TrEMBL record:
Name of the protein this chain belongs to: Probable lipid kinase YegS-like
GO-annotated cellular components: cytoplasm; plasma membrane
Function: Probably phosphorylates lipids; the in vivo substrate is unknown.
EC number: 2.7.1.-
Entry's cofactor comment: Binds 1 Mg(2+) ion per subunit. Ca(2+) may be able to substitute.
InterPro entries reported in the protein's UniProt record: ATP-NAD_kinase_N, Diacylglycerol/lipid_kinase, Diacylglycerol_kinase_cat_dom, Lip_kinase_YegS, Lipid_Phosphate_FormReg, NAD/diacylglycerol_kinase_sf, YegS/DAGK_C
Gene3D superfamilies found in the cross-reference section: 2.60.200.40, Probable inorganic polyphosphate/atp-NAD kinase, domain 1 (3.40.50.10330)
Pfam name, any one: DAGK_cat
Taxonomic lineage from the root: Bacteria, Pseudomonadati, Pseudomonadota, Gammaproteobacteria, Pseudomonadales
Catalytic residue positions: 268
Cofactor(s) of this protein: Mg(2+); Ca(2+)
């Protein structure tokens, strides 16, 4: 069996993407055997990963946005070390890929098929896996309320536009976080529990996060007294008031949330008022660029979208 063999699981919305088609053909001309499968409805990504592993594929390409990447990563993590993952970022935000330094052009991204994979961590909460980040507070509500049509027109800027237009509706929420030698509680505006560094279309919440340190980066933005003015400034500056954050790095953290604290997992809403987030060290093999800022010992690079 050829080692230059991979399966691309492509989000159905990208079926007519000419850049992807050209990139696949270019790799085939270089000797790669690339098969393509499309997702259509919930559960397809997991099913297609299972079929790929049964067929002996040892490299799987995830073509889509952060949600698609998460679904495929979760399916692969359930059968560890059977196949490695190549990310083909095709979403609006592409937060994990941007932070990792993965090229956004399909042809360049597929060149990572020829690089060795790295063992990376995943986050887990309530049996669900996340590749990038769990977020809470007003930023999560903005992400959830950003329309698909607006994202098509404005791209990643749609999140900022939605936040600016809705900031008067948003408010602080109460949360309590506890982990090894760490305890914090109070009113907060934003919360990031990161394996990756940024969320919501380029907002860097966990600027020092690494994917191979066995830890989760925790970033809490406490709510100041002058709430509305601060919200407007934060959204305008792209979360620019960095010195206001409370930050720590933990192998696990438990969160108690009150009404009004919205949590999402790589962009998907998460329900529950008591949650335990844990790092799963070296849970997945991913082809990252040489010198990726998400790997330990590498320089920190800001890839805001």
């Amino acid at each position: 069996m050829s080692e230059q063999r991979a399966l691309l699981i492509l989000h159905g919305k990208q079926a007519l993407n000419e850049s992807v088609r050209a990139a696949v053909e270019a790799k085939r001309e270089k000797g790669w055997e690339l098969a393509v499968r499309l997702t259509w409805e919930a559960g397809d990504a997991q099913r297609l990963v299972g079929e790929a592993l049964e067929a002996g594929y040892t490299r799987i390409i995830a073509g889509g946005g952060d949600g698609t990447l998460r679904d495929i990563a979760e399916a692969l993590a359930q059968q560890p070390k059977k196949a490695s993952l190549v990310l083909l970022p095709l979403g609006t935000a592409n937060d994990f890929s941007r932070a990792a330094g993965i090229p956004l052009e399909p042809a360049d991204a597929l060149e990572l098929l020829d690089t060795p994979p790295s063992d990376i961590d995943l986050g887990e909460v309530g049996g669900q896996i996340f590749l990038n980040m769990a977020t809470g507070g007003f930023g999560s509500q903005v992400t959830a309320n950003t329309s698909e049509d607006l994202k098509k027109v404005l791209g990643g800027a749609a999140y900022l536009f939605t936040g600016l237009s809705r900031f008067s509706e948003l408010h602080a929420a109460y949360g309590e976080l506890q982990g090894p030698d760490f305890h914090w509680r109070g009113e907060l505006l934003a919360l990031g529990i990161g394996n990756g560094r940024q969320a919501g279309g380029g907002h860097v919440l966990c600027p020092q996060a690494l994917v191979d340190d066995g830890m989760l980066d925790i970033s809490i933005l406490p709510a100041p007294q002058e709430l509305v003015g601060t919200l407007k400034n934060l959204l305008s500056d792209g979360f620019g008031i960095d010195n206001m954050f409370v930050r720590t790095r933990l192998p696990w953290v438990e969160i108690k949330v009150a009404e009004g604290l919205y949590i999402n997992l790589d962009g998907e809403p998460l329900e529950g008022d008591n949650m335990r987030f844990e790092a799963r060290p070296a849970a997945l093999q991913v082809h990252l660029p040489e010198g990726s800022p998400l790997l330990s010992g590498k320089p920190s690079v800001n890839h805001q979208g």
